[in-house]
Amino acid sequence: MTSQFPQARPRRLRRSPELRGLFQETEFTLNDLVLPIFVEEEIDDFVPITSMPGVQRIPEKKLASEIERYARAGIKSVMTFGVSHHLDASGSDTWKERGLVSRMSSIIKDAVPEMIVMSDTCFCEYTDHGHCGVMHGAHVDNDATLVNLGKQAVAAARAGADVIAPSAAMDGQVQAIRRALDDAGFTHIPIMAYSTKFASALYGPFREAGGSALKGDRKSYQMNPMNRREAVRESLLDEQEGADALMVKPAGAYLDIIRDIREASRLPVAAYQVSGEYAMIKFGAQAGAIDEDRVVRETLGSIKRAGADLIFTYFAMDLALAGI
Q: To the nearest whole number, what is the mean pLDDT of the chain?
């Protein structure tokens, strides 16, 4: 006689690859991924980023051909970060008509018009002090920075950027940028708010990638990693100010926050798998401790499962070449 215990047997749906695929709850495609890129002006060749194996600074003169390569592989969207050689106290190059921020967008759109260009809107890579805005003594002047964020956003939009993505972590930045865009006639340009951006130790490799001149830290304007309720509040404030989409950064250590915001808002939610997360997987795989491909897919799947609609990841090109 066959025992009736246990009656519930979830393993029935895991018995074969076909069954597992049929009943898989969470999936991601290239449509869900955004590739962050670093573009450096006034250099002739690619510069490897030692703390991010496989990632390079792209020379501006080779940006068009690189974007064409991404498009052929199936990449649909990029986030632009500039490595500037024209630093000053306010990051004024970012709002010049022919500054690096504007040139990146125009080059990409000229090369591949259908590529979605998200313009990171901040100042840390363009200031001689490495902070994300105008300094007043030892502190970043929030309201003076808002004015400049508006100018940078308008410059990027004029150059062809499809999405403005403010990451400066200033209070009121979404509203200030929305007003500036609308006043300049760019009512159709959406804002992807870095709405919950933590002062994380996981940004370490990005400092090398972006050539940051930062002395000190950004804890006075980026969020305390230990604060969950405040994280939701920050994103809801950005929604009230007119954000079209929200973002949690970093992603992997903040899956609870992604879920909280997903449940609190009807806006699209993005998550950024940051440089430190990328580096840990790469170096772990190089040491033979983990299977890189499986871990990449598992971590991105967990971010999607937590509630993210799209994911910023440096693995996007690897997955595209692998046919995802």
A: 96
Choose, from 76, 109, 197, 282, the residue flagged as catalytic. 197
Give CA–CA dist 64/51, Å, rounded: 25
Angstrom distance (rounded) from CA 256 to CA 84: 35
**Per-residue buried b or exposed e for 5-32, using 16+ beta carbons within 10 Å of the residue's own CB:** eeeeeeeeeeeeeeeeeeeeeeebebeb
pLDDT, residue 2, reads 62
Among the listed residues 61, 215, 219, 249, the single catalytic one is 249
Q: Which two tokens stand for residue 237?
A: 């404030």
What one-letter code names the amino acid at 279?
Answer: A
Annotated catalytic residue 215: no
Backbone angles phi, psi at 150, to 5 degrees: -60, -45
Q: Is 62 a catalytic residue?
A: no
Which residues make beta-bridge pairs with 78?
35, 117
Residue 214: predicted pLDDT: 76
Q: Is 107 helix (H, G, I), strand (E, B) or coil?
A: helix
From first CA to last CA, the distance across the chain in angstroms is 47
**Is 171:117 a contact under the CB 8 Å cutoff?**
no
CB contact at 8 A, 252 and 263: no
pTM for the structure as a whole? 0.95
- Alpha carbon distance 179, 76 (integer Å): 28
Buried b (16+ CB within 10 A) or exposed e, 207-223: ebbbbbeeeeebeebbb
- Find residue 93's DSSP bridge partners: none
59 backbone dihedrals φ, ψ, rounded to 5°? -65, 135
Rounded mean pLDDT of 259-280? 98
Which pLDDT tens digit goes with each residue over 179-221?
Answer: 999 999 999 999 999 999 999 999 989 877 877 777 778 999 9
| Contact of 267 with 241, CB cutoff 8 Å | no
DSSP H helices in 92-228: 100-111, 142-158, 173-183, 204-210
Calpha distance 89→219 (Å, rounded): 20
pLDDT digits (tens, 9 = 90+) for 25-82: 999 999 999 999 999 999 999 999 999 999 999 999 999 999 999 999 999 999 999 9
